[in-house]
Amino acid sequence: MYTIDDLNYLMARLRKPDTGCPWDLKQTLISINDSTIEEAYELVDALQQSFAHNGKADQQVLEELGDVLFQVIFYAQLAKEEGSFQFADIVHVLCEKLIRRHPHVFPDRELYAEHSEPVSEAEVKRQWEQIKAEERAEKAQLQQQSAGFFDDLPRALPALKRAQKIQKRAANIGFDWPNAVAALSKIDEELAELKQALDTQDAAASEQELADLIFSCVNVARHLQADAESLLEQANQKFMRRFGYIEAQLAQQGTSLEQASLVEMDSLWEQAKRQPES
Asked: Is 220 in contact with 166 (CB distance < 8 Å)?
């Protein structure tokens, strides 16, 4: 079995001048960002498909986990070449962070020390928020600037996930609707404002009000303890299933999507809605 040391050696070989891989040699810490995002999404997709079919991780999940690990190894090699850090430093900092963030598991920040009494979930949550606030303040101090409440939220997150994290953090200090029904009233308000902007044919205002409406929908999803990103993907899949029904029915009739009229497609769409969801 190959080891993590073998993988680090392999990565160094790929980046070795003259005898390495031409594509790998051209890459930088920034140029592989898109690949990192893509690999993360492919892993999530493999996990969802695997559990839907088998109820457990399969070979595809194993391979996608390897692809994500390779991204970490790639960044480590690039950083090592520029003298910033190496893979061992990543492991060390990660362990240090996890130990610091789990004082209920590792007393006195010692890896091999153990608590004698269990800690409640409420206390864990309180500790977590306190630790995160301390980390934000420490990071801001290192950067010689004030610690903004949302400064550490990754900008590269999908917008729906970022919105949900923003709202959750605001809710943690009491800035929130009391429940989903109350949050729903904000949707009504934003929808009315969007209609007004559309009536005045103000394109910029319409876009802004639509953005506010989407943000409000995310808030309702959060109150329902649902993930907005996952909900939208469910809607994507439902739309594609129903559209696939239209396509299949038209094919049986000897016609195509391009040849069908909107009336025909609308009629088949209503039929598709009555089909049992798989």
From this structure: no
CA–CA dist 72, 65 (Å, integer): 11
Locate all alpha helices (DSSP H) within the chain, ordered by sequence.
Answer: 4-14, 22-26, 33-53, 59-81, 87-101, 121-142, 159-172, 180-199, 203-223, 228-252, 262-273
User: What pLDDT is recorded for position 145?
Assistant: 66
Name residues of the chain where pLDDT drops below 70. 143-147, 278
pLDDT at position 116 is: 78
Residue 201 DSSP code:
T
Give the total residue count for the chain: 278
Q: 75-86: string of b/e by CB count within 10 Å (b at 16+)?
A: bbbbbbeeeeee
If you search the block for the tokens 């194993």, which residue do you land on? Answer: 62
Give this prediction's pTM: 0.66
